[in-house]
Amino acid sequence: MNSLIIGSLSYNLSSSSRRLQDSSSSAVSTGCYQVSLRASKQKRIIRSQSSSLRCNFGRLNESLQLSHKLNTKRVASAISDQQPVSPDPASPQQSLSSALDTFYRFSRPHTVIGTALSIVSVSLLAVQKLSDFSPLFLIGVLEAIVAAFFMNIYIVGLNQLSDIEIDKVNKPYLPLASGEYSVKTGIIIVSSFAAMSFWLGWMVGSWPLFWALFISFILGTAYSINVPMLRWKRFALVAAMCILAVRAVIVQIAFYLHIQTFVYGRLAVFPKPVIFATGFMSFFSVVIALFKDIPDIVGDKIFGIQSFTVRLGQKRVFWICILLLEVAYAVAILVGASSTILWSRYITVLGHAILGLILWGRAKSTDLESKSAITSFYMFIWQLFYAEYLLIPLVR
Questions:
Q1: 172 phi and psi, to 5 degrees?
Q2: Helix axis angle, 207-224 relative to 183-204, nearest 10°?
Q3: Contact between residue 322 and residue 361 where contact means Cβ atoms under 8 Å apart
């Protein structure tokens, strides 16, 4: 094709040259007028030939570009036939990390940590001598932690299944609200963990442990599930009583009895530290029940959840919670001061005084107009909750 176009160009150029020569000789012989006429015609011919030349060069350039594109496609096709190209899939490590992160958020880890610490703490209250720290004790504590962990996943998962639309407003980062988990996936997870919890509790053979799981299951279901006569979270006082019953009574009493009667085979007696733990955690459980609704006031209003925050306002409920905790710390200081063991007295009094002062200072500096600041303070309360379970075994 290139040779044909170039040949055509050379032919046009040669013919143009001959016509120029003929027209020039003709103009000289016929006179000035004809010379002028021929000159005018010659100009039009030259312009026509120039236009034709530019057109042919344009066609040549387009032909060369088309040939280059075709060759490029052939080369790319040949390479792709030999080495097929496919998008890089996500590495197994990245997929596993993403799955773990999603489940981590679904499990509400602050509640899991609180459950594990509370079980370890109250289990230590049953220890009377150094020889009590035996493999049997460690196995008993581990069985309780794992069974309670499974039940905790059921309770928080069921709450998320029942609150998907509310969480899209209040907690859009949760897997069900964000769409990372489907409803079917959520149902499978909570059902599986409830079954594993009951299975483990039954296999262990500890009645205190089994009843702790069963009562937690009943109250957790009644608190969240949206069926007639249930979904007790709609009613502020009943919701607070559910949380208090699980966190303050079931955890302290049942798991203590699991170690005291099942692991050690002793009589069911309740010493001073167990009574103190139950009373102090009653205050804390009420505070958690009240405070958890403060950041969620917008969604609760939209969906008709009549929490104390919706009824009384964020600021008033916030300071009620602070007052309750400060009263709890004051009682703890009095209990510590009455101890006959010197080291227990100093640690209990000093520890609770420090925690009470930290709480007051943090509360005074919290911006109640900021949802993020209130949420951060709620997690701070859980940190105080963890710290208390470190002090409870030292109460004597």
A1: -65, -10
A2: 160
A3: no
Contact between residue 263 and residue 144 where contact means Cβ atoms under 8 Å apart: no
* DSSP-H helix ranges across the chain: 2-30, 32-82, 92-106, 109-124, 135-162, 164-170, 175-178, 183-204, 207-224, 236-244, 255-257, 272-291, 297-302, 308-312, 314-337, 342-364, 371-391
CB 279 within 8 A of CB 331: yes
Contact 209, 262 (CB under 8 A): yes
Q: What is the pLDDT of residues 212-254, one digit of tens each?
A: 999 999 999 999 998 888 888 888 888 889 988 998 899 899 9
pTM of the complete model beyond 0.85: no
* pLDDT tens digits along 179-220: 999 999 999 999 999 999 999 999 999 999 999 999 999 999
SS3 (DSSP) at 184? helix
Structure tokens at 288: 């958690």
Give the SS3 label for residue 71.
helix
